[in-house]
Structures are given as C-alpha cells and as structure tokens.
Amino acid sequence: DTAVSQTPKYLVTQMGNDKSIKCEQNLGHDTMYWYKQDSKKFLKIMFSYNNKELIINETVPNRFSPKSPDKAHLNLHINSLELGDSAVYFCASSQIPGLFGYTFGSGTRLTVV
Amino acid sequence: QKEVEQNSGPLSVPEGAIASLNCTYSDRGSQSFFWYRQYSGKSPELIMSIYSNGDKEDGRFTAQLNKASQYVSLLIRDSQPSDSATYLCAVNINQAGTALIFGKGTTLSVSS
Q1: What is the pLDDT, as a whole number, of residue B97?
Q2: What is the mean pLDDT of residues A38-56?
Q3: Other CB atoms closer than 10 Å to residue B66's CB: what's the count?
Q4: Closest CA to B90 of A32, A83, A25, A104
Q5: What Å distances lie between residue A79 and A73, A76, B84, B85, CA to CA?
Q6: Closest to B38 (Cα-Cα) out of B21, B52, B24, B53
C-alpha cells in the first residue's frame, strides 16, 4: 500500500495550458505539503496544509492554487503554464514534522513545452 | 531568509572509505535536523534525524550536531557504491506552521 501517492507521475503539456496534480496519503497525517524541485535538485516549499487549512503559502505565483478537500488529499492546480514551471513536484505528509520529518510521494515530473 | 547551506559536490570517495557531508543553517531557533538520501529519479527518503548536540549513530551512518556553530554533518562509514546519491540536509522552521527547509544537496559518488 503506497503511503503517499501522486498522480500523474509524468506530465508533458504546452505553455498556457492548465493542469492538476493529485496527492493522497493513507498515513493518517494531519499535515501535507507541496515542494518544487528544480533541475539543480533544490527542494523549495510551496504550500503547507494542516487538516485542510492553509498554513504556509510561500512566494509562489498565484497561478498555483492548492486545494485540500480533506486531510488525506492535497491537490495542486496550475493555470497558464510557463516554461519555468518545468520541475519535479513532490507531495509530502507528516504527523509531527519537527519530530518525524516527512514521507514523500514519488513525485510528478512536469515538462512544459 | 532562513537558509540551509551544503556543498554541492560531487564528493568522490573510494569504496570502504568514510564519506563526510556537511551542512550549516541560519536559523538559531531550529530544533530538528534531518538527512535525506535521494537517488536519481526517486523521491527523498529519510535516513537520519538528530535533535540534540553530539553524535547519533545508526548502522554505518552517524549524524553530528553542533547548535552553537549551527552545523550538522553526516558520516557514512564503509561507503558502498549503493550509497552513491544526493544527500539533502533539512532543518525545521516554525513560521505559523512547522515545515522543513532543505539544502541544495551534496552528490556523493562511491567508486568500487
């Protein structure tokens, strides 16, 4: 049973399109995150939700909109995709991040052409 | 801006040697520190956590923490080719909610 699952694993799309990435965790964790990993492997936090409530919203273009219908799901919708959005997007979850760190999903490689 | 700094490498060591990976952080209030290993094309996986000054050992891995110097390190003893990966240092921050900020990672290459 996959603990944190993301779909799709790969996403190739044209500039200007709108796309969504879905994330689900079956660990019972209260907190979920979206991170972006660029080509240089730098993992940068985008959003954090705790029990469906937005907690952290880093400096991210407002074309990116997270949605958490329940504490087990955190989706990421991206409008008007740009070339610079190409990256690997990781979803993660944690019960107590300061104690246990995160469990990561397998990532979604987004390529904008 | 809270930051975590790592040398990007690559760090090359022969099989059986000790690999030493270093990390510094800017937020003196940080309390929890983690090392993640990431193989190419895979997601990061947690290998060590440390919360108190000193050393913490787990098999071939030893994490070292010095809060006064704001310094965390990871030692890998008897390095194996399978240890070749990118190692990410992560530090907790508290800004409204707790999150981890990551360094840019150090790429380790172990040659047989």
Answers
A1: 56
A2: 88
A3: 12
A4: A104
A5: 20, 10, 37, 34
A6: B21
Q: Which residues lie below 8 Å from residue B57, measured CB to CB, with a gap of 6+?
A: none
Distance, in Å, from the CA atom of A26 to the CA atom of A66, rounded to the nearest integer, reads: 19
- pLDDT one digit per residue (tens) for chain B, 112 residues: 678 999 888 999 999 999 999 999 998 888 899 999 999 999 999 999 999 999 999 999 999 999 999 999 999 999 999 999 999 999 987 655 578 999 999 999 999 9
**CA neighbor of B106 nearest in space, from B17, B35, B45:** B35
Q: How many CB pairs under 8 A join A and B?
A: 65
Alpha-carbon span A47 to A36, nearest angstrom: 10
pLDDT over 90, % of chain A? 79
Please report the pLDDT score of residue A32 as a whole number: 95
Q: Can you tell me the mean pLDDT for A20-45? A: 94
DSSP state of B7: -
Nearest by CB to A56, from B38, B90, B99: name it.
Answer: B99
Answer yes or no: do B99 and A97 touch at CB < 8 A.
Answer: yes
For CA atoms B42, B33, B2, B8, the dihedral sign is negative
Query: A107: which chain B residues are within 8 Å (Cβ-Cβ)?
Result: 42-43
Let me know if A106 is exposed, middle or buried by CB neighbors in 10 A (0-12, 13-18, 19+).
middle
Cis-peptide, bond into residue A8, ω within 30° of zero: yes
Assess contact for B4 and B100: CB atoms under 8 A: no
